[in-house]
Amino acid sequence: MEVFDKWLSAELKPFKRDFDQIKVTKQRCLGCSSKLITWILDFDPQFTYPDWELGKCNDCGKLNLIQIENARSFQPKTFTLIKSFKRSEFSKEAVLNELLKLEKK
Asked: What are the distances in angstroms from CA 62 to CA 19, 42, 71, 80?
């Protein structure tokens, strides 16, 4: 665990924040069940994140709809952001249809 703490400290140094201020969210990849980890850098319980995010798992490459809630800023750790969709313009169903189209390419 000490090695992980040192690594985490080095990763977070650019953000100059206490570890207590960073929230971590996790969800399972639909392809390989690995954890898709997001660091929430600016958490606000009154804020609704305005976009749907599609992320590509770094382990298997499967596209996933990433759940971002109450975050003004975040950093993906175990996936790569592929595309954002404005919630005001796209329903969840429309985003899932886009995900299916992107997977077929």
From this structure: 30, 27, 24, 11
For 5-21, write each residue's pLDDT tens digit. 566 656 655 555 555 56
Instruction: Give phi and psi for 70, each to the nearest 5.
Output: 55, 35
pLDDT of res. 70: 86
Is 75 a member of any domain? yes
Asked whether residue 9 is domain-assigned, the answer is no
| Cβ pair 2, 14 in contact under 8 A | no
Name the domain count of the chain: 1
Q: Are 77 and 37 in contact (CB under 8 A)?
A: yes
- Six-digit token pair at 59? 């382990």
Cα(67)–Cα(95) distance, rounded to whole angstroms? 12
Domain, as residue range, for 63: 17-104
Confidence of residue 104 (pLDDT cuts 50, 70, 90): confident
